[in-house]
Specification:
The protein has helices at about 10-30, 35, 70-85, 100-115, 130-135, 150-155, 160, 185-190, 205-215, 235-250, 265-280, 295-300, 315-320, 350-360, 365-375, 395-400, 410-415, 420-440, 450-465, 470-485, and strands at about 60-65, 90-95, 120-125, 165, 170, 175-180, 180-185, 225-230, 305-310, 330, 340-345. With about 500 residues, it is an alpha/beta fold. The protein has a domain at about 10-175 and about 340-400: D-Maltodextrin-Binding Protein, domain 2 (3-Layer(aba) Sandwich), CATH 3.40.190.10. Strands 2-1-3-11-6 form a five-stranded mixed beta sheet. The chain has a four-stranded mixed beta sheet with strand order 8-9-7-10, sandwiched between helices. A two-stranded antiparallel ribbon has the order 4-5.
């Protein structure tokens, strides 16, 4: 994992001594020990640029958190505020942005570029990090080469932490992550004498899925007929994710590590053929071509598909929609794409030091456990281990199972706490989730991601809706457009 530019050991030790000396002097001058330890009651004295820190609150901008689990993001903010009750400068406030991901991105870009909103921390989709970093809208994280801070960063799952990096600098900390998983109906498979491997981390292959669908004799024509599987093929980001997974399975990489286009018409054809195989041989639910996360989850829960490609939150949501014995989960066949959000400090924040301290708290081992308990995928490896630290007690008490008030809420928002299958099944789920995250792949890392995903969605959705799709012709057109997109044209 890249954590920034490496300096010599001697320079590191010298800098560490200077920092410690400065901290010690600061403590003696202010006589406020809590301010040096980060404990409750201490006001940070600088903004992070050597200037006096502005008064609070620390404002965090994020997408909507209307969960079925007690709004875990808000609960974590409230826990931070309780721990800093004696300091006005260290109080934090969560501002939730309305709309979908594209609308939120536009709002944040506009607000940060114009300076019209006073945000100190932004919760960014992992695909936005290069764009915001390249535009100078977020600050690089301090480089830690040794000591507790560096050790703490190393606890983040390697591929998840890599989402925070652009041009060898980390610009954020991973808050919550995501990865594609395979949900299935063991009862339907067992009735057809199809062996169901219940071992944790057992990998299905797409060929095994196709063979199971063939054995079941499925060939759906209408949306109310039982299909082999369903997923998100509507013209939005879900289609991009499914396409990138099919491409990755075929060995097709669209960009190099610097975001430069690296594919070709021949390679793109391989990827498009892989996606069409999943649609045709997998006997996908016809409604999948217009399905987002909510629609796909509903089709599976209401018995219109045997398999479902979805995110981790579906495990908790299904507990409110189905009999616990009617569904199970395994890693997605082949490659699975990472999702999630990272927390970054805005470039113009006058509260940068306090903002970084808040981010450290929100991504701590205890906070990450709270996120996992609420239905998110946690970003730290230790959270998936047997010695994981528990969620903050008051946050844990505030969380409630997904769908307790409204079963459809978790499906709509993408968040909610798992329940229904018991402790043993949940432990198995957590092991599967942790393993899947260590093997997941990223979508292209580029400052032009917004343009890329629109081009890909448009081309691929048109191909999927054609009666006789020509992948060679589609690949030629897609190649030309992607060359322009990744060159910033």
């Amino acid at each position: 994992m890249t954590y920034g530019d490496h300096r010599t050991h001697a320079r590191t030790r010298a800098r560490t001594r200077r920092v410690r000396a400065a901290l010690a002097l600061g403590c003696l001058l202010t006589l406020v020990s809590a301010g040096c330890t980060g404990g409750p009651g201490g006001d940070a004295q600088e903004s992070g640029d050597g200037k006096p820190a502005a008064e609070g609150p620390i404002v965090v901008a994020s997408g909507l958190d209307v969960t079925g689990s007690g709004s875990v993001r808000q609960q974590l903010i409230e826990e931070w505020n309780r721990r800093h009750a004696g300091s006005k400068a260290q109080q934090a406030k969560l501002v939730e942005l309305p709309g979908g991901a594209d609308q939120q991105r536009s709002q944040l870009l506009g607000a940060l570029q114009s300076g019209s909103a006073r945000y100190d921390v932004v919760n960014l989709d992992i695909t936005w990090i290069p764009e915001f970093a390249e535009a100078g809208l977020i600050r690089p994280m301090p480089v830690e080469e040794s000591g507790p801070a560096a050790d703490d960063d190393r606890d983040f799952i390697r591929r998840v932490h890599a989402t925070t990096v652009w041009k060898d600098r980390s610009y954020a900390r991973p808050f919550n992550t995501d990865v594609g998983l395979l949900y299935y109906r063991p009862d339907l498979l067992t009735k057809a004498d199809i062996a169901v491997d219940k071992q944790p981390n057992a990998h299905w292959t797409w060929d095994q899925l196709y063979a199971s669908v063939k054995t079941l004799g499925l060939n759906p024509v209408r949306g109310d007929e039982l299909a082999g599987w369903t997923t998100q093929l509507k013209q939005y980001e879900g289609l991009t994710v499914n396409t990138v997974e099919a491409f990755a399975d075929a060995g097709v990489e669209l960009t190099d590590s610097e975001g430069k286009y690296s594919s070709s018409p021949g390679e793109l054809k391989k990827g498009l053929d892989s996606l069409l195989d999943r649609v045709d041989r997998g006997r996908v639910q016809p409604a999948a071509l217009s399905s987002d996360e909510t629609a796909a989850l509903t089709d599976f829960a209401e018995g219109r598909a045997v398999f479902l490609r979805h995110w981790p939150y579906a495990y908790g949501a299904l507990g409110s929609l189905m009999d616990p014995k009617a569904y199970a989960v395994n890693p997605l066949p082949g490659k699975a794409v990472l999702g999630g959000q990272d927390l970054a400090v805005t470039a113009d924040s006058p509260r940068a030091a306090n903002a970084r301290a808040l981010i450290t708290f929100l991504t701590s081992r205890e906070s990450e456990r709270c996120l996992l308990d609420a239905g998110f995928a946690a970003t730290r490896a230790s959270v998936y281990g047997s010695a994981a630290k528990p969620c903050w007690p008051r946050v844990a008490a505030a969380l409630r199972p997904a769908g307790e008030d409204a079963p459809k809420a978790a499906a709509t928002t993408g968040e909610g706490g798992p329940k229904g299958q018991g402790a043993q099944a949940r432990a198995t789920y957590i092991r599967i989730l942790g393993a899947a995250l260590t093997e997941a792949v990223q979508r292209p890392r580029t400052p032009y991601y917004g343009a890329f995903t629109q081009v890909l969605q448009s081309r691929v959705h048109a191909l999927l809706t054609e009666e006789r799709p020509d992948t060679a012709e589609a690949a030629q057109g897609l190649d030309k457009e992607l060359r322009d997109v990744f060159a910033g044209r």
